[in-house]
Amino acid sequence: MMNQEILDDAVQNYINLNLIGDVNKIALSKSPFKNISAAEVANQISAKKKAEKKLPTWFSTAKIYYPSTLSIEQTSSEVTAKYKSKLAKGDTLIDLTGGFGIDAYYFSKTVPKVTHCEINQDLSAIGKHNAECLVVKNINFQAVNGLEYLENNQLTYDTIYIDPARRAEKGKVFLLKDCTPDVISNFDKIISRSERLIIKTAPLLDISAGLSELKWVSEIHILSVKNECKELVWVIDKNFKGSTKIIAVTLNEIEKEFSFLLNDINTNAVYADEITLNTYIYEPDAALLKSGAFNLIGVKYDLKKLHQQTQLYVSQKIEQTFPGRIFKIKSIIKGNELKKQKELSGNVIVRNYPAKAEELVKKFKIKSEKDAFLIFTKNLQNELIIISAEIVQYY
Hints:
By secondary structure, the protein is of the alpha/beta class. The chain is built from 14 helices and 18 strands. The longest helix is centred in the first third of the chain and has 17 residues, at 38-54.
């Protein structure tokens, strides 16, 4: 149950004062409040700490009530929720798996009427309370199973949103049928109530498998933050015909996008016959790599691929719209000359090289250096090489 006592000013002050405290110690100590357990206080502190960077709007708003830390970990970040809000269409949207309410909050900024369904009554109540704190008035909170709610009324929606979670007994999930709610079994039922369905999945989900499980997929958005793939977002438009559009997006200080039609993915790569000093090495962001369009990346940005099995590219110029890191080559060391090198320094990157980064650092006593990098890889001739480079563009 949502403990209203936690919203008392004295308790809120205590939580804010202990954000840098030892949460485990607080949990094991006697609670300073009569009707609140130490575990409850500790959870509020821990969850709020996790929200500081992921959910800054919630963190900075007074009287926000936090669910379990697991709910905070599983919820969308503000940056991804804000992006997804642009994908909704029409005047009505229903979120069938509302959770903590981050996605519903951002959808409410672009859609006049939003319905938030959450089977966990406590989490639904928390979402409703927090919406009031955030002065959001166009979200209708329903403490119900989202699919059952659809079945029990005849309402239609311009957009339906669902975020299926992996089943508890499953490990890493690569298929939608291994998630709950089961979108695949209920697909026809869901899509009959809307023209657009948006499905959020974990980034591990296999894109090819998802496309074989689903139909009418018009777009797949691959969302990355600081070179970490966060979400796959599947946009399904009823009766869509044509090639699915893949959009790889980096949501950093500057948003960048790499997009293509799935029909165009099979193209020939251009390879770098040689690598010269003072040219540039391009390392694609995780979102681009997830797209699988390894050859197309080079074609689009006029880059030459380093090796058939290496997703690194070279160019004589800097293309700042490229979603990923760019390095300037300072020197090239042949693999058989590495032992002769003394006082190596730089951050180690390993791509298609028969050793792990930590092993190389230890073996060759490589010292860390902020903007310097050592890229262990292979050239087109299949020779082991080490490229010493300085970074000129971060993600």
